Amino acid sequence: MYCMLFLRLIFLNLRGFMENVTMRPIIKVLEDKCINCHRCIMVCPVKMCNNGSGAIVDHHSDLCIGCGECITVCSHGARIGIDDFDEFMADLKKGVKIVVIVAPAAAASFEGKYLELNGLLKSLGAKAVFDVSFGAELTVKSYLDYMKKKNPLTVISQPCPTLVSFIEMYRPELIPYLAPADSPMMHMMKAIKKYYPQYSDCKIAAISPCYSKRREFAACGIGDYNVTFNSIQNWMDSKKDTIANYKAEDYDNPPAERAVLFSSPGGLMRTVQRYDKDINSKTRKIEGSPEVYHYMAYLSEAIRKSNGPVFKLIDCLNCAMGCNGGPGTGNRGKHLDDVEYLIEQRQMETRKKYQPKNIFQKLFARNKLEKLLDKYWEDGLYSRSYIDRSAIFKEMVIDPSEQQIQAVFTRMHKTSSSDILNCGACGYRNCEQMAVAIINGLNKMENCRHYVEIEKTLRNEESVKQKLNTVYDHTLGEMNKNLGGISSLSLNIGETANHVLSSSTAIEQMVENTRSIHQTLEQNARTVLLLNESSSEGKNRLHRIAELIDDVSAQSDALIEACSVIGDIAEQTSILGMNAAIEAAHAGEAVGKGFSVVASEIRKLADNSNKQAAEIAGSLKNIKALIDSSKESSGQAEQQFDTMVSLINTVKNEELHINNAMEVHSSGGNQVIQSLNEINSLILKVKEESASLLSSSETIIEDIRGLKAM
Questions:
Q1: What family classification does the UniProt entry report for this protein (predicted)?
Q2: Buried b vs exposed e over 398-437: b needs ≥16 C-beta within 10 Å?
Q3: What is d(CA 305, CA 302) in angstroms, rounded to the nearest whole number?
């Protein structure tokens, strides 16, 4: 067993040595999503870990401090953080013994259900779950012990591995001021190894808000997995699971007091306040990029000038929201109060556990916490040393001379102070940084806005020059063609003038003929008007005749009816005569003879009357037929008169239209004659101008030849 532990220790030290030489990758570039917008360079505190010289912005792990700002700012998802979630889950499934430590930011990342997170981890197979907040309590004890014994000029806090990497690589002169003590996570891991022998054969996984914690594990030679809150949340989302579905499980280590605040900005300072009420006035609290890096970049200069540090403790964090808003959380972009509220709530709960319930407990409450911390603290156990990694930067990035920078500026068309725009469009803070990147092959001139604009102008000028030469050649050819055309034009203009004069004479004759036609049409119009009046009069008279025929027809009908009555009377008279003859016969010859003669005459008279009435009726019927025929002919004649009147009106209207058209035609002809006269005048002027144009064209050709020669 001891042999295995010894080999493991050798392996961890060897791994730590190798990872001290090259930095573990914690950010991955997805090339298919990168659009080369340079926003990642813009937010990067150290710039030179990005390579924008190609089609994408690549990333160099050995120069990266792991701040995660590029992950947050990339709206295309081209950069992602790397943690050990997959390896952690695979080993749990294999039955590998693993204990877990959980960062205090879990309360903010899982909506206050940090104990349910413990239940989830244990359900996955974790043997135990420890609260890093207790490691933070031990960290404060280590800090205070160091400050009391060594009384340093200042102490730069080091719970943030990103800031530690920045100082080691880019500001190694600040290493002496870094607290020579482990971070809360390292305190907790070492405490497990020292004070929990039952887990000595277990690997340790950290559930954290930060991708760069993995580098701290490598540097210290302890810690096997770094699993971010985001990975756990994404895993639950993929399974449509929530943290609320798990049982709340307490931690397997003693509870912390106010050190649960460590994940919030100023959490270290507020925990130290338990021992030093005036620590606020002695502490520089600073967090967030770029402020914290600007402060660190010039801190050594301030120390050298004896202008700083003003504060004994520098409580610093990379993220503006502290670890609660680390790149491995889903809290970036949320309101600060909403996030810190959950941490503050937990702090009030944990402090209640150590609050005295009576006067006696009040006297010994602090001793209770101190005794507990003393139990898990040992002098030298939690010491931390740092490595000057600046050689990596110096080896990979050339520090160019002023001449080299000026040479790049010249190639970039930055030849005067007004060309040094420092616009930041390239992602760098100023043009000099961009020049340094170009010299080191980490960027290219085409990513400089000023260079692109000047190059575009130069290309446009060259293009314009080429186009002008083409235009010169084309213009000369066309002008030579135009010379012949202008000469022909002068000749054609003279001929055109003659044709215009001939046309003018013909049009004048046409106008005169139009006037004659107009007069004839006016005479025809008067004749048509008289014909129209006569036709209307004839129509009226014919209508009167038709009315008279109607009257005669009516009288004829009356006569026919009278003849019918006469016939009836004659027939009755004949019957009466017959009856009289019969009566005369009855009366005898002596009496009835004379009466018989009278009756006979009456019958003859009746027969004659009936015969004449029949003849008269027949004649009247013939007359009636003739009258009806005359009436029909009269109606047809009246209709023909109507048609004739309509046609006369049509002829009158057509002649009126023709007459109007002829008036317009006559007026137009006069205008044409006037226009032709004006055209003739203009043609004479054009003839004069064409001669002048011919002379000018010859002069222009000579000028163009001279311009091209320039």
A1: Belongs to the methyl-accepting chemotaxis (MCP) protein family.
A2: eebeeeebeebbeebbbeeeeebeeebebbbeebbbbbbb
A3: 5
CA–CA separation, 436 and 407 (whole Å): 11
DSSP state of 321: T
503: its two tokens: 């046309």
Handedness of CA 561, 563, 567, 569 (dihedral sign): positive
Task: Please provide residue 586's backbone torsions phi and psi, each rounded to the nearest 5 degrees.
Answer: -70, -30
Pick from 454, 493, 513: which is nearest to 682 by CA?
A: 493
And the tokens for 110? 């899982």
For 59-92, give the secondary structure using H, E and C: ECHHHCCCCCHHHHHCCCCCEEECCCHHHHHHHH
Beta strands in 67-128 (DSSP E): 79-81, 98-102
Q: Tell me how far apart the alpha carbons of residues 604 and 144 are, in angstroms, rounded to a whole number.
A: 178
Burial call 8-32: b when 16+ CB within 10 Å, e when fewer: eeeebeeeeeebbeebbbbbebeee
Q: Which residues of the chain have a pLDDT value below 50?
A: 1-20
Domains and CATH numbers, the chain: 2-26+82-396 (no CATH), 402-445 (no CATH), 451-560+635-709 (1.10.287)
Which tokens is 1 given? 């067993």
Sole residue written with tokens 């770029």? 290
> Residues 166, 293: contact at Cβ < 8 Å?
yes
Measured CA distances, 437 to 40, 79, 322, 404, 555 (Å):
15, 21, 31, 12, 132
Two tokens at 616? Answer: 């008269």
Q: Do 48 and 437 contact (CB within 8 A), yes or no?
A: yes
* Cα–Cα dist 213/83, whole Å: 9
CB count in 10 Å sphere of residue 357? 8
Residue among 378, 376, 371 nearest 354 (CA): 371
Distance of CA 491 to the CA centre of its chain: 63
Residues 206-255 pLDDT 10s: 999 999 999 999 999 999 999 999 999 999 999 999 999 999 999 999 99
CA distances for 283 relative to 146, 277, 313, 316, 633, angstroms = 16, 12, 5, 10, 134
Element (H, E) at 59: strand 58-59
Q: Residue 612 has what pLDDT?
A: 78
- Cβ 228 vs Cβ 235: under 8 Å: no
Inter-helix orientation angle 402-411/431-439, to 10°: 100
The pLDDT value recorded for residue 586 is 77
CA within 13 Å, CB half, 432: 6
CB 25 within 8 A of CB 58: no
- Alpha-carbon span 510 to 504, nearest angstrom: 10
**pLDDT value, residue 518:** 67
Instruction: Select from 45, 91, 39, 96 the least CA-distant residue to 66.
Output: 45
Residue burial 321-335, b: 16+ Cβ < 10 Å; e: rest: bbbbbbbbbbbbeee
Q: Rounded to whole angstroms, how far apart are CA atoms 508 and 142? A: 123
- Are 515 and 666 in contact by the 8 Å Cβ rule? The answer is yes
Phi and psi at residue 378, to the nearest 5°: -140, 135
- φ/ψ of 625, rounded to 5, equals -65, -40
Question: Amino acid letter at 521?
Answer: L
